[in-house]
Amino acid sequence: MRIAVIGAGIGGLAVAGGLQRAGADVTVLERAPELRQVGSGLSLFGNGFTALDALGLGDAVRALTASDSPLPQAGQRRPDGRWLARTPADAIERLGVVHRADLHRVLVRALRPGALRLGATVDAVTPDGRVHLDRALPDPLPEDRFDLVVAADGIHSRVRRSWPGDPGLHYSGYTAWRGVTTRPVDLRGAAGETWGRGLRFGIAPLADGRVYWFAVASMPAGSVVADEHGTVARLFGGWHAPIAELVAATPPEAVTRLDVHDLAGPVPTFRRGRCVLLGDAAHAMTPDLGQGANQALEDAATLTALLAGLAGAARPAERHLSAALDEYDRLRRPRTQRIARLARAVGAVGQTRGPLTGWLRDTAMRLAPDRAAARQLVDLQAWRPPVVRADATRSAS
Protein backbone atom coordinates (compact mmCIF):
# COMPACT_ATOMS: atom_id res chain seq x y z
CA MET A 1 0.00 0.00 0.00
CA ARG A 2 1.47 3.36 -1.08
CA ILE A 3 0.76 6.19 1.32
CA ALA A 4 1.76 9.86 1.17
CA VAL A 5 1.89 11.84 4.40
CA ILE A 6 1.89 15.61 3.94
CA GLY A 7 3.77 17.35 6.73
CA ALA A 8 6.64 16.27 8.98
CA GLY A 9 5.20 17.52 12.23
CA ILE A 10 4.50 15.31 15.22
CA GLY A 11 1.28 13.81 13.86
CA GLY A 12 2.62 13.26 10.35
CA LEU A 13 5.82 11.59 11.49
CA ALA A 14 4.01 9.45 14.05
CA VAL A 15 1.49 8.08 11.55
CA ALA A 16 4.22 7.56 8.96
CA GLY A 17 6.25 5.49 11.39
CA GLY A 18 3.23 3.49 12.49
CA LEU A 19 2.10 2.69 8.96
CA GLN A 20 5.64 1.74 7.93
CA ARG A 21 5.79 -0.74 10.80
CA ALA A 22 2.46 -2.14 9.57
CA GLY A 23 4.02 -2.80 6.14
CA ALA A 24 3.04 0.24 4.07
CA ASP A 25 5.29 2.06 1.61
CA VAL A 26 5.18 5.56 3.11
CA THR A 27 6.52 8.83 1.70
CA VAL A 28 6.53 11.93 3.91
CA LEU A 29 6.35 15.18 1.96
CA GLU A 30 7.66 18.17 3.93
CA ARG A 31 7.83 21.62 2.38
CA ALA A 32 10.74 22.86 4.52
CA PRO A 33 14.12 22.45 2.80
CA GLU A 34 15.65 21.22 6.05
CA LEU A 35 14.51 20.07 9.47
CA ARG A 36 15.43 22.60 12.12
CA GLN A 37 15.48 21.90 15.84
CA VAL A 38 12.91 24.50 16.82
CA GLY A 39 10.07 24.77 19.29
CA SER A 40 9.83 24.68 23.05
CA GLY A 41 8.13 22.23 25.39
CA LEU A 42 4.96 20.20 25.15
CA SER A 43 3.00 18.03 27.55
CA LEU A 44 2.33 14.37 26.88
CA PHE A 45 -0.49 12.96 28.97
CA GLY A 46 -1.51 9.37 29.56
CA ASN A 47 -3.51 9.20 26.33
CA GLY A 48 -0.54 10.47 24.34
CA PHE A 49 1.70 7.76 25.81
CA THR A 50 -0.98 5.14 25.13
CA ALA A 51 -0.94 6.22 21.47
CA LEU A 52 2.88 6.16 21.39
CA ASP A 53 2.87 2.65 22.86
CA ALA A 54 0.48 1.51 20.12
CA LEU A 55 2.87 3.00 17.55
CA GLY A 56 5.88 1.26 19.10
CA LEU A 57 7.45 4.53 20.27
CA GLY A 58 6.42 4.75 23.90
CA ASP A 59 9.67 3.58 25.49
CA ALA A 60 11.84 5.84 23.33
CA VAL A 61 9.78 8.90 24.30
CA ARG A 62 9.58 7.93 27.99
CA ALA A 63 13.37 7.97 28.02
CA LEU A 64 13.16 11.69 27.20
CA THR A 65 10.93 12.37 30.22
CA ALA A 66 12.64 10.15 32.81
CA SER A 67 13.70 12.15 35.87
CA ASP A 68 14.84 11.38 39.41
CA SER A 69 13.15 14.52 40.71
CA PRO A 70 9.85 14.11 42.56
CA LEU A 71 6.71 15.23 40.74
CA PRO A 72 5.99 18.85 41.70
CA GLN A 73 2.64 19.97 43.06
CA ALA A 74 0.55 21.14 40.12
CA GLY A 75 -2.61 23.17 39.73
CA GLN A 76 -3.60 26.82 39.42
CA ARG A 77 -2.33 29.67 41.56
CA ARG A 78 -2.96 33.38 41.95
CA PRO A 79 -0.24 35.89 41.01
CA ASP A 80 0.64 36.16 44.72
CA GLY A 81 1.31 32.41 44.81
CA ARG A 82 -1.74 31.26 46.76
CA TRP A 83 -3.36 28.12 45.37
CA LEU A 84 -6.71 28.30 43.62
CA ALA A 85 -6.83 24.56 42.89
CA ARG A 86 -4.43 21.64 43.28
CA THR A 87 -4.30 18.75 40.84
CA PRO A 88 -4.26 15.33 42.54
CA ALA A 89 -0.99 13.50 41.85
CA ASP A 90 -2.69 10.45 40.31
CA ALA A 91 -4.28 12.67 37.66
CA ILE A 92 -0.86 13.59 36.28
CA GLU A 93 1.23 10.56 37.24
CA ARG A 94 1.65 9.64 33.55
CA LEU A 95 2.41 13.21 32.47
CA GLY A 96 5.71 13.81 30.72
CA VAL A 97 7.06 17.13 29.46
CA VAL A 98 9.42 16.98 26.49
CA HIS A 99 11.20 19.46 24.30
CA ARG A 100 9.46 19.43 20.94
CA ALA A 101 12.79 19.11 19.11
CA ASP A 102 13.69 15.98 21.11
CA LEU A 103 10.35 14.32 20.34
CA HIS A 104 10.70 15.28 16.71
CA ARG A 105 14.14 13.65 16.59
CA VAL A 106 12.78 10.34 17.94
CA LEU A 107 9.97 10.32 15.36
CA VAL A 108 12.33 11.06 12.45
CA ARG A 109 14.71 8.28 13.51
CA ALA A 110 11.82 5.80 13.42
CA LEU A 111 11.40 6.32 9.67
CA ARG A 112 13.10 4.19 7.05
CA PRO A 113 15.91 5.89 5.08
CA GLY A 114 14.56 7.83 2.13
CA ALA A 115 11.00 8.05 3.44
CA LEU A 116 11.26 11.77 4.25
CA ARG A 117 11.32 14.09 1.24
CA LEU A 118 12.24 17.68 2.09
CA GLY A 119 11.47 20.75 -0.04
CA ALA A 120 8.25 19.11 -1.26
CA THR A 121 5.42 21.64 -1.23
CA VAL A 122 2.04 20.12 -2.03
CA ASP A 123 -0.18 22.38 -4.09
CA ALA A 124 -3.25 20.15 -4.23
CA VAL A 125 -4.57 16.68 -3.53
CA THR A 126 -7.41 15.13 -5.51
CA PRO A 127 -9.91 12.69 -3.97
CA ASP A 128 -8.47 9.84 -6.07
CA GLY A 129 -5.14 10.15 -4.22
CA ARG A 130 -3.14 12.24 -6.67
CA VAL A 131 -0.63 14.65 -5.16
CA HIS A 132 0.39 17.75 -7.10
CA LEU A 133 3.64 19.45 -6.08
CA ASP A 134 4.40 23.10 -6.81
CA ARG A 135 7.69 22.10 -8.41
CA ALA A 136 9.49 18.95 -9.45
CA LEU A 137 11.79 17.37 -6.89
CA PRO A 138 15.46 16.74 -7.74
CA ASP A 139 14.69 13.05 -7.19
CA PRO A 140 11.13 12.81 -8.57
CA LEU A 141 8.46 10.62 -7.04
CA PRO A 142 8.03 7.39 -9.01
CA GLU A 143 4.29 8.04 -9.21
CA ASP A 144 2.01 10.88 -8.09
CA ARG A 145 -0.99 8.71 -7.25
CA PHE A 146 -1.21 7.03 -3.85
CA ASP A 147 -3.60 4.56 -2.28
CA LEU A 148 -4.00 7.02 0.59
CA VAL A 149 -2.96 10.60 1.33
CA VAL A 150 -2.74 11.73 4.97
CA ALA A 151 -2.88 15.51 5.20
CA ALA A 152 -1.01 16.42 8.38
CA ASP A 153 -0.03 19.86 7.13
CA GLY A 154 -0.97 21.86 10.20
CA ILE A 155 -3.45 24.53 11.19
CA HIS A 156 -2.99 26.35 7.86
CA SER A 157 -3.55 23.13 5.90
CA ARG A 158 -3.81 23.71 2.15
CA VAL A 159 -5.64 20.42 1.84
CA ARG A 160 -8.34 21.31 4.36
CA ARG A 161 -8.82 24.77 2.87
CA SER A 162 -9.56 23.17 -0.49
CA TRP A 163 -12.35 21.01 0.95
CA PRO A 164 -16.00 22.06 1.04
CA GLY A 165 -16.99 23.26 4.50
CA ASP A 166 -13.57 24.45 5.67
CA PRO A 167 -14.47 26.60 8.73
CA GLY A 168 -11.40 28.84 8.58
CA LEU A 169 -9.55 30.06 11.66
CA HIS A 170 -10.72 31.79 14.83
CA TYR A 171 -8.54 34.09 16.93
CA SER A 172 -8.79 33.24 20.60
CA GLY A 173 -8.22 36.82 21.78
CA TYR A 174 -4.83 36.08 23.31
CA THR A 175 -1.22 35.66 22.33
CA ALA A 176 1.33 33.29 23.86
CA TRP A 177 5.06 33.54 24.51
CA ARG A 178 7.09 30.37 25.03
CA GLY A 179 10.58 29.74 26.29
CA VAL A 180 12.92 27.16 27.82
CA THR A 181 15.48 28.16 30.41
CA THR A 182 19.14 27.47 29.67
CA ARG A 183 19.77 26.24 33.22
CA PRO A 184 17.88 24.57 36.06
CA VAL A 185 15.70 26.83 38.19
CA ASP A 186 14.38 25.93 41.64
CA LEU A 187 10.61 25.60 41.27
CA ARG A 188 10.11 25.29 45.02
CA GLY A 189 8.19 22.06 44.50
CA ALA A 190 5.39 23.59 42.44
CA ALA A 191 4.45 23.88 38.77
CA GLY A 192 1.26 24.34 36.74
CA GLU A 193 -0.37 27.64 35.86
CA THR A 194 -0.87 31.01 37.49
CA TRP A 195 -4.03 32.90 36.55
CA GLY A 196 -4.37 36.66 36.73
CA ARG A 197 -6.70 39.06 34.92
CA GLY A 198 -6.23 38.56 31.20
CA LEU A 199 -2.80 37.08 31.95
CA ARG A 200 -1.56 33.54 32.62
CA PHE A 201 1.83 31.98 33.22
CA GLY A 202 2.62 28.26 32.98
CA ILE A 203 5.56 26.28 34.36
CA ALA A 204 6.60 22.73 33.38
CA PRO A 205 9.96 21.15 34.30
CA LEU A 206 11.93 19.13 31.73
CA ALA A 207 13.76 15.95 32.66
CA ASP A 208 17.21 17.57 32.38
CA GLY A 209 16.39 20.27 34.93
CA ARG A 210 15.58 23.05 32.49
CA VAL A 211 12.11 24.54 32.63
CA TYR A 212 9.60 25.09 29.86
CA TRP A 213 7.38 28.09 30.46
CA PHE A 214 4.66 29.97 28.64
CA ALA A 215 3.03 33.34 29.16
CA VAL A 216 -0.38 34.35 27.83
CA ALA A 217 -1.86 37.84 27.45
CA SER A 218 -5.11 39.11 25.98
CA MET A 219 -4.42 41.51 23.13
CA PRO A 220 -5.63 42.21 19.57
CA ALA A 221 -4.54 39.83 16.83
CA GLY A 222 -1.41 40.91 15.01
CA SER A 223 -0.17 43.17 17.80
CA VAL A 224 3.44 44.25 17.30
CA VAL A 225 5.74 43.84 20.29
CA ALA A 226 9.17 45.40 19.90
CA ASP A 227 10.81 43.49 22.76
CA GLU A 228 9.18 40.11 23.38
CA HIS A 229 11.44 39.12 26.29
CA GLY A 230 11.18 42.52 27.93
CA THR A 231 7.40 42.57 27.57
CA VAL A 232 7.05 39.22 29.37
CA ALA A 233 9.39 40.43 32.11
CA ARG A 234 7.31 43.58 32.54
CA LEU A 235 3.88 41.92 32.47
CA PHE A 236 4.78 39.20 34.97
CA GLY A 237 7.60 40.80 36.96
CA GLY A 238 5.47 41.28 40.10
CA TRP A 239 4.13 37.71 40.15
CA HIS A 240 5.23 35.01 42.57
CA ALA A 241 8.64 33.33 42.44
CA PRO A 242 10.21 31.88 40.41
CA ILE A 243 8.45 33.47 37.42
CA ALA A 244 10.81 36.42 37.07
CA GLU A 245 13.78 34.07 37.46
CA LEU A 246 12.47 31.76 34.72
CA VAL A 247 12.19 34.64 32.28
CA ALA A 248 15.64 35.93 33.25
CA ALA A 249 17.12 32.44 32.71
CA THR A 250 15.88 32.40 29.11
CA PRO A 251 17.87 34.25 26.41
CA PRO A 252 15.81 36.92 24.61
CA GLU A 253 16.40 35.25 21.24
CA ALA A 254 14.93 32.00 22.60
CA VAL A 255 11.55 33.56 23.42
CA THR A 256 8.93 33.05 20.71
CA ARG A 257 5.39 34.35 20.40
CA LEU A 258 2.35 33.27 18.41
CA ASP A 259 -1.21 34.53 18.36
CA VAL A 260 -3.39 31.61 19.45
CA HIS A 261 -5.89 30.36 16.88
CA ASP A 262 -8.12 27.35 16.55
CA LEU A 263 -10.58 26.28 13.88
CA ALA A 264 -13.62 28.55 13.75
CA GLY A 265 -15.95 25.56 13.71
CA PRO A 266 -16.07 21.82 13.13
CA VAL A 267 -14.75 20.29 9.91
CA PRO A 268 -17.69 18.37 8.34
CA THR A 269 -15.58 15.29 7.62
CA PHE A 270 -12.01 14.11 8.13
CA ARG A 271 -12.19 11.95 5.00
CA ARG A 272 -12.63 12.83 1.35
CA GLY A 273 -12.07 9.98 -1.09
CA ARG A 274 -8.57 8.61 -0.55
CA CYS A 275 -7.48 11.53 1.61
CA VAL A 276 -7.83 12.04 5.37
CA LEU A 277 -7.00 14.94 7.66
CA LEU A 278 -4.88 14.40 10.77
CA GLY A 279 -3.71 16.54 13.68
CA ASP A 280 -4.04 20.32 13.51
CA ALA A 281 -5.16 20.09 9.89
CA ALA A 282 -8.28 18.32 11.15
CA HIS A 283 -8.91 19.82 14.59
CA ALA A 284 -6.55 22.66 15.50
CA MET A 285 -7.34 23.62 19.08
CA THR A 286 -6.09 26.13 21.61
CA PRO A 287 -3.37 24.82 23.97
CA ASP A 288 -5.47 25.30 27.09
CA LEU A 289 -5.82 21.58 27.82
CA GLY A 290 -2.36 20.63 26.55
CA GLN A 291 -4.02 18.16 24.18
CA GLY A 292 -2.92 19.28 20.71
CA ALA A 293 0.00 16.88 20.28
CA ASN A 294 -1.79 14.16 22.23
CA GLN A 295 -4.79 14.25 19.91
CA ALA A 296 -2.52 14.12 16.86
CA LEU A 297 -0.89 11.01 18.33
CA GLU A 298 -4.31 9.50 18.97
CA ASP A 299 -5.17 10.16 15.31
CA ALA A 300 -1.97 8.44 14.22
CA ALA A 301 -2.51 5.38 16.42
CA THR A 302 -6.15 5.07 15.35
CA LEU A 303 -5.44 5.28 11.64
CA THR A 304 -2.56 2.81 11.98
CA ALA A 305 -4.74 0.32 13.84
CA LEU A 306 -7.54 0.57 11.29
CA LEU A 307 -5.17 0.08 8.34
CA ALA A 308 -2.97 -2.60 9.91
CA GLY A 309 -4.58 -5.38 7.89
CA LEU A 310 -4.36 -3.43 4.64
CA ALA A 311 -1.00 -1.66 4.86
CA GLY A 312 1.04 -4.57 3.51
CA ALA A 313 -1.17 -5.15 0.49
CA ALA A 314 0.09 -4.09 -2.93
CA ARG A 315 -3.44 -3.02 -3.88
CA PRO A 316 -5.88 -2.86 -0.96
CA ALA A 317 -9.48 -3.68 -1.79
CA GLU A 318 -11.42 -0.45 -2.28
CA ARG A 319 -14.33 -1.46 -0.04
CA HIS A 320 -12.06 -2.37 2.87
CA LEU A 321 -10.00 0.82 2.55
CA SER A 322 -13.15 2.93 2.32
CA ALA A 323 -14.62 1.25 5.39
CA ALA A 324 -11.42 1.86 7.38
CA LEU A 325 -11.33 5.54 6.46
CA ASP A 326 -15.00 5.98 7.32
CA GLU A 327 -14.32 4.39 10.70
CA TYR A 328 -11.39 6.76 11.27
CA ASP A 329 -13.72 9.69 10.68
CA ARG A 330 -16.39 8.19 12.94
CA LEU A 331 -13.97 7.58 15.81
CA ARG A 332 -11.86 10.72 15.66
CA ARG A 333 -14.10 13.58 14.61
CA PRO A 334 -16.54 13.68 17.57
CA ARG A 335 -13.83 13.26 20.22
CA THR A 336 -11.41 15.83 18.85
CA GLN A 337 -14.11 18.39 18.19
CA ARG A 338 -15.47 17.99 21.71
CA ILE A 339 -11.97 18.49 23.16
CA ALA A 340 -11.43 21.54 20.94
CA ARG A 341 -14.64 23.12 22.27
CA LEU A 342 -13.59 22.35 25.81
CA ALA A 343 -10.12 23.84 25.29
CA ARG A 344 -11.64 27.06 23.96
CA ALA A 345 -13.94 27.28 26.99
CA VAL A 346 -11.07 26.74 29.43
CA GLY A 347 -9.07 29.43 27.66
CA ALA A 348 -11.93 31.89 27.95
CA VAL A 349 -12.21 31.25 31.69
CA GLY A 350 -8.46 31.49 32.15
CA GLN A 351 -8.31 34.83 30.37
CA THR A 352 -11.09 36.45 32.41
CA ARG A 353 -10.26 40.16 32.71
CA GLY A 354 -13.00 41.84 34.73
CA PRO A 355 -12.59 42.27 38.51
CA LEU A 356 -16.02 40.80 39.32
CA THR A 357 -15.84 37.89 36.88
CA GLY A 358 -12.27 37.24 37.98
CA TRP A 359 -13.31 37.13 41.63
CA LEU A 360 -16.17 34.77 40.82
CA ARG A 361 -13.83 32.49 38.88
CA ASP A 362 -11.22 32.39 41.63
CA THR A 363 -13.84 31.79 44.31
CA ALA A 364 -15.42 28.94 42.37
CA MET A 365 -12.02 27.32 41.86
CA ARG A 366 -11.13 27.56 45.56
CA LEU A 367 -14.44 26.03 46.63
CA ALA A 368 -14.55 23.20 44.10
CA PRO A 369 -13.16 19.86 45.36
CA ASP A 370 -9.78 19.17 43.73
CA ARG A 371 -10.88 15.64 42.82
CA ALA A 372 -13.95 16.93 40.97
CA ALA A 373 -11.91 19.46 39.02
CA ALA A 374 -9.40 16.77 38.02
CA ARG A 375 -12.03 14.29 36.79
CA GLN A 376 -12.06 15.88 33.36
CA LEU A 377 -8.29 15.45 33.04
CA VAL A 378 -8.52 11.81 34.14
CA ASP A 379 -11.33 11.11 31.65
CA LEU A 380 -9.34 12.62 28.77
CA GLN A 381 -6.48 10.24 29.47
CA ALA A 382 -8.65 7.11 29.51
CA TRP A 383 -8.55 6.79 25.70
CA ARG A 384 -7.57 3.48 24.10
CA PRO A 385 -6.86 2.72 20.42
CA PRO A 386 -9.46 0.72 18.52
CA VAL A 387 -9.30 -3.06 18.53
CA VAL A 388 -9.76 -4.25 14.95
CA ARG A 389 -10.85 -7.80 14.18
CA ALA A 390 -8.50 -9.70 11.92
CA ASP A 391 -11.29 -10.36 9.45
CA ALA A 392 -12.41 -6.71 9.40
CA THR A 393 -9.51 -5.53 7.22
CA ARG A 394 -9.14 -8.28 4.66
CA SER A 395 -7.17 -7.05 1.66
CA ALA A 396 -6.94 -7.99 -1.98
CA SER A 397 -3.73 -7.76 -3.95
From TrEMBL:
SUPFAM superfamilies: FAD/NAD(P)-binding domain. GO terms for molecular function: FAD binding; monooxygenase activity. The keyword Endoplasmic reticulum does not apply. Keywords: Monooxygenase, Oxidoreductase. Residues 3-341 form the FAD-binding domain. This is NAD-binding protein. It comes from Geodermatophilus sabuli.
